[in-house]
User: What shape does this take?
Amino acid sequence: MSKFLNYNKAIFGKSEKQAVMKALNKGWLSNGMDTLNFEKEFADWWGIKYSLTTNSGSTANLVALQALDLPKGSEVITPAGGAFPTTISPLYYLGLKPVFVDIKCLTIDPEEIVKAISKKTKVILFSHTLGQIPNMKRIVEIAKKYDLRIMEDCCDAVGSKQDGKMVGTFGDIATISFYPAHHMTTGEGGMVITNNRKLYKTANSIRDWGRDCVCRADNNNPMCVDRYRNPPFDHRYYYSRIGLNFKMSEMQAAFGREQLKRLDKFIEIRRRNYKILADIFNEPFDEQISPFAYPLLSKNKNKMMHELQKRNIESRVIFAGNIIKHPAFKDLDYRVVGDLKNSNILFKQGYFVGVGPNLTINDMKFIGKSILEIEKTL
Assistant: This one.
């Protein structure tokens, strides 16, 4: 096959380009009505009360975690396997301690959570890796029993459901990424979503430098309506929290509003493509998931990925594999519970190929056939 099969490639066209130019011509470049409308439309699509744009999925994680307002030194239970640095790094920025547990089917193992709970535990934080979902009923039961918060990173799982319920709505707060490889894109960008109004307003403040003014949260207006009615200072520049500027631009939001119109079709194609590979490999497919990619294991992972590259098939390792095996975490403070057996297997053997909407039915058949052929030679 001559063309290169990217595991995912952003798809956009005339409507996105026109929307960006329209936003530019309005002259309001940051956090205006396109942003507000994008947040509302995205929340409506997701079936959740509140959504808040950020400039990346990484900063969405930082904002969401800080909004939980945890005491310094609090422990956060999180999986070592399949993790990406952006779910772990915010813990250190905020003075929190990760407690690493093992995975089951790419994401956090609920029974390992129970083993890791201590008096300092405050939050269960995990990603729905590649669109896969842990047993959320069990995780919610654990959280209620031990009075813990749940934070879901849904960057890989936009549209995934379990028992008909959308990911990101089981816990207290959740995040999404709009990086080009994800289900839809704004170039760079992210979103914090929640059904909790207090968390939404707190996140809004943190994202906007930490200022006390969150008028947009109450009035659907980017301007401060109480600017001179809230002594002792100009309310728009009165700071009640520590925050930074994590806002999305109007051009990104305008682009995202058009992408959102394509999202259902993107997800439909991803499910179709995933199922083609599942059928070829004689593996089950949960039609409720909205897959980011197709996970695979090989004892000759590097050789496998190299041979796929020769056939113009792009592949990737499953993120960090086991995050604590990377040098950045060598001297950091964390706790490990269990032997992390599955996380270590993922580190040594895990990789994925694409199911993105840029890939055709014939592309997927070629990818599946190639994997089977290469495996026989290794």
About this structure: The chain has two domains: 14-256, 262-377. The mean pLDDT is 96.
